[in-house]
């Protein structure tokens, strides 16, 4: 099954608290997403005004293979603004839960049906391709969502987004509910998951198992509150755990995540799945020993698949194999009989520093420990040893 990606780093991602992308950053991110091979780049909200419209026009003119999508509310002014940006595809979003309809808009389900239908017709009349996002679908009445989805499909909407806007569903329930909807309304469905309970990737996979052929993602999961489903996690998990090859250039994932993190002025967490610096870093002696023999013992896939690097660090949990490897990397052929003493020093030093040792520190520690041991052996270092 072919899964397609609508990446919304430039729209939902930029809605993350405190994040602003400059035009140059937007262009660089869009080009990088395009090179990776995502099919759609949801790039902004024309109703926000001149600057946002300018950046959308710039991306439309950038000659990308991916289609640039403008995000709109169910509002005719939004549709007109999107049409003015030169995009070929608009995404119209409408709240579908009573909670959102009542509290945000003071409206009801009948209004939602009427307003979105009218805007869809408007956009189609302007020659635009149209997708619709069912905002807060996970907290909506499924019968209403089914009615609305059927109506939108009849109108000619090419894709429907089932949005778990506040991350309020778990994968098992999601799969059951979305399966019913997808079997009843035969159009292209997209799963849009948020990570408020840390389930965005799992929910995206569940959406695909329910029959969705599109996944909405952001790079590194950047997005409002706890963020969105991360592109790199979803693509690798679908490919590796469900046999759905992404068709994307996954080798660019690490560089793409670093690019977006820099533009967002955020630090990419070291332990971030797939693209974090530590995603393929090994410290524990047992793991290093195993990984040196057969990397698949302690790695889900080769780091080169996502542009990452395997690293071994010498920290508190190091073992003889790690130490031997670290010294070999420094061009030192260690004396096996002295490794135990050196390892003891490594553990003491890393416990004090609360971090792994750097290459120069490893070399210095090895040399100084050997010197102490040698002195001890010939009797001259006894005083030093007792002082330690
Ligand atoms: Zn969202």
What does this structure look like?
With 388 residues, the chain is α/β, with parallel strands linked by helices. It has two domains: 4-263, Alpha-Beta Barrel (TIM Barrel), CATH 3.20.20; 281-387, no CATH class. The protein is 48% helix and 13% strand. It contains 16 helices and ten strands. It has helices at residues 9-13, 23-36, 50-60, 76-83, 98-105, 109-125, 142-155, 171-184, 200-210, 231-242, 253-263, 285-293, 320-329, 339-353, 359-378, 382-387, and strands at 4-7, 40-44, 67-73, 89-95, 129-135, 159-164, 188-193, 214-217, 281-282, 311-312. The strands form two sheets. An eight-stranded parallel beta barrel has the order 1-2-3-4-5-6-7-8, surrounded by seven helices. It has a two-stranded parallel ribbon with strand order 9-10. Helix 3 links the parallel strand 2 (40-44) and strand 3. The radius of gyration is 27 Å and the shape is elongated. The N and C termini lie far apart (64 Å). The model is unreliable at 380-388 (pLDDT under 50). It binds zinc ion. Zinc ion is lined by residues 12, 165, 192, 194. Zinc ion binds at residues 12, 165, 192, 194.
């Amino acid at each position: 099954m072919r899964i397609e990606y609508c990446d919304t780093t430039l729209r939902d991602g930029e809605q993350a608290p405190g994040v602003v992308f400059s035009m140059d950053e937007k262009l660089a991110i869009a080009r990088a997403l395009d090179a990776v091979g995502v099919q759609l780049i949801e790039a902004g909200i024309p109703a926000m005004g001149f600057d946002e419209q300018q950046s959308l026009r710039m991306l439309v003119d950038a000659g990308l293979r991916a289609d640039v999508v403008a995000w709109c509310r169910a509002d005719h002014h939004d549709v007109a603004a999107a049409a003015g940006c030169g995009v070929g595809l608009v995404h119209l979003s409408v709240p579908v839960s009573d909670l959102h309809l009542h509290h945000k808009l003071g409206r009801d389900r009948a209004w939602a049906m009427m307003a979105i239908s009218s805007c869809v017709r408007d956009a189609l009349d302007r020659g635009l391709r149209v997708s619709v996002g069912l905002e807060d679908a996970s907290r909506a009445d499924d019968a209403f969502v089914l009615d609305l989805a059927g109506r939108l499909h009849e109108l000619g909407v090419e894709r429907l987004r089932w949005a778990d806007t506040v991350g309020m569903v778990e994968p098992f329930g999601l799969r059951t509910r979305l399966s019913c909807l997808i079997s009843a309304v035969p159009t292209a469905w997209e799963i849009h998951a948020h990570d408020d309970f840390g389930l965005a990737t799992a929910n995206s996979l569940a959406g695909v198992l329910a029959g969705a052929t599109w996944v909405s993602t952001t790079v590194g999961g950047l997005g409002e509150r706890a963020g969105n489903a991360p592109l790199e996690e979803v693509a690798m998990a679908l490919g590796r755990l469900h046999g759905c090859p992404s068709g994307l250039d996954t080798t660019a994932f690490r560089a793409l995540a670093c690019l977006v993190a820099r533009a967002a002025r955020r630090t990419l967490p070291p332990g971030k799945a797939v693209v974090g610096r530590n995603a393929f870093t090994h410290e524990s002696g047992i793991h290093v020993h195993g990984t040196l023999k057969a990397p698949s013992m302690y790695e889900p896939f080769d780091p080169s698949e996502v542009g990452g690097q395997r690293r071994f660090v010498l920290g508190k949990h190091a073992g003889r194999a790690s130490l031997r490897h670290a010294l070999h990397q420094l061009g030192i052929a260690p004396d096996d009989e002295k490794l135990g003493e050196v390892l003891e020093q490594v553990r003491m030093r890393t416990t004090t520093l609360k971090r792994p040792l750097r290459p120069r520190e490893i070399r210095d520690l090895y040399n100084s420990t050997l010197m102490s041991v040698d002195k001890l052996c010939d009797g001259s270092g006894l005083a030093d040893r007792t002082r330690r």
